[in-house]
Amino acid sequence: MLTFIISIGLLIVAYFTYGKFVERFFGASSAIETPVKRLADGVDYHELKPWRIFVIQFLNIAGLGPIFGAILGAAYGPMAYVWIVIGCIFMGATHDYFSGMLSIRHDGTSLPDIVGKYLGNNVRKFMTFFTGFLLLAVGVSFVNGPADLLGNLTNMSMTPWLYVIFAYYILATLLPIDKIIGKIYPFMGLALIFMAVAVGGYLLYGGFSGKLYLEELTFDTMKNMHADPANNILFPMLFIVISCGAISGFHATQSPMMARCMTDEKYGRPIFYGAMISEGIVAMIWATAAMAYFGGAEGLNAAATAGKTPAIIVDAICNSWLGRFGAIIAIIGVVVCPITSGDTAFRSMRLIIADALKFNQKPIKNRLIVSIPIFIIAYLLCNVDFSTIWKYVGIGNQVLATITLWTAATYLAKKGKAHWMMSIPATFLSIVCTTYFLIAPYKVGGLYLSPSISYPIGAIVGIALFVLFITKITRNK
C-alpha cells in the first residue's frame, strides 16, 4: 500500500506547492484583463464559472488515456508509478498550465499561433497541419470506440450509435460552448469521478484488509517487467504508452478553449495545473488496479497475453469490485470519457483552422464553412481501418508536447526569466521522442535499431536542441 498512498499524496501535495510556485513564477495576476473580458462573442469567448471550466478541462484532457494508457503502462511494472508522479508534477501539469496561460496572454489564440510567435512561422505552419491531423485522429477514434462499445452493450449494430455520436459532435462543435458542453459536462464528470473514487476506495479497502496484493516499488521491481521486453523497452516505450497521466501534447490543444472562458488569471492553477494533477491521480488508480486485480505485473502481463484488452480489464474490475450498479456507472464513465474528448477535439480543430485563416467564428455560417469539411473527412475515415493511424497518436502526443515545452521555455527566456523548468523537460522529451523513432519496431513506426545505436543518437539530438535553444536566446538578448 505504501507506494500507492505515497504516490497519491505526492500528487496532491504538488498542487499546493510546486503548482503554486509555477503560478508565481509565471506571474498570474487578477489585475490583467482576460480575453473574454475584451473579446466576448457568446460562442467561443464566453464567461463560465471556474468549477465548470475545471470539469470541462478535466474531461477534455482525460478521455481514455489515463485509464487505458495506465493499464498498458502497468505491464512494465511499478516503474510506471515513477513516470506518472514525476512526469505529471514537473512536466505534464506545468505543460498544461503554460499552454493555457500563454493562450490567455495572447487573446485566447490556438496552440499553432502561440508556437509560431515564439518558434517562428515555419514551425507554426507545421504545427497547424500536425495538430490538425492529431485532433482528427483523436476525434475519429473517439467516434468508433464508443459506438462499438454501445453497440455491444445494447446488442445492436454500431452504425446507429455512430450517427448518434456524430450528431452530438456536430452540435458540440457548432453551438456556443455554454449550450451543450457547459451544461452536460458536469453530469458526465460525475461518472468519471465516481469511477475513480470507487476503484481507488476499493484499492485502499482491499490493501488494508489483505484481500489485494499491491505491488510495491522496490529495488527488485525497478526494472522492465513487461512480458515482451525486447519489443517493449522500458526507455522510451513506457514514456510513450503513458502520455495522458504524465504529459500529453493533446492537452495543449484543449487549454486555449478554456482560456477563452476564464474571467481571472488566478483560476489558471486549479483549472490547468489542477486538472492535470487530477488526471495523474486517475492514472495512478488504474495502473494500481490493473496490477492488483491480477496479483501483480506478471499476472497482468499473462492476462494481456491471453487476449484481455484494457476495455475487458476495466469491465472485469468494475463488475468484480463495484457490483452491478457500480459497474454500470463505471461503464458509462468509460463511454463518456472518449466522447468528451472527441467533441472538443473537433471543436479545437475548428478553432485552429479559423485562427489560421483569420476567419471570424461568431456567425453560424462561418462555423459551418469550417466544420462541414472536417466532418466529411472524419466520416470517410470512420469507414476505413483507422488502427494504422492510431498507432502514431501516442508518439504524436509527445512530439506535440515537446514543441509546446520548447515554446514555453522560449517565452520565459524572452521575459528574462529562468527557463529551466521548461527547457529541461523539453530536452528530456526530445530524447524520448528521438529514441522512440529509432528503437521502436517497424509496426509501431520506428526503425527498430539497437539500443546501443538509438540511445546515443537520441541523447545527441536532445542535447543539440538544448544547445541550439541556448545559442538562440543568448543571441537575442
UniProtKB/TrEMBL annotation:
Span of domain CstA N-terminal: 3-138, 147-313, 317-434
Membrane-spanning parts: 53-74, 80-98, 126-147, 159-177, 184-205, 233-250, 271-294, 325-346, 367-386, 392-413, 420-440, 452-471
UniProt subcellular location: Cell membrane
Main location: membrane
UniProt keyword Transmembrane, yes or no: yes
GO biological process, one term: cellular response to starvation
Pfam families: CstA
GO cellular component term, pick one: plasma membrane
Keyword Thylakoid attributed: no
InterPro entries hit by this protein: CstA, CstA_N
Highest rank taxon of the organism: Bacteria
Record keywords, A-Z: Cell membrane, Membrane, Transmembrane, Transmembrane helix
Membrane topology annotation: Multi-pass membrane protein
Record family assignment: Belongs to the peptide transporter carbon starvation (CstA) (TC 2.A.114) family.
Protein name: Carbon starvation protein CstA
Organism of provenance: Butyricimonas faecihominis
Taxonomic path: Bacteria, Pseudomonadati, Bacteroidota, Bacteroidia, Bacteroidales
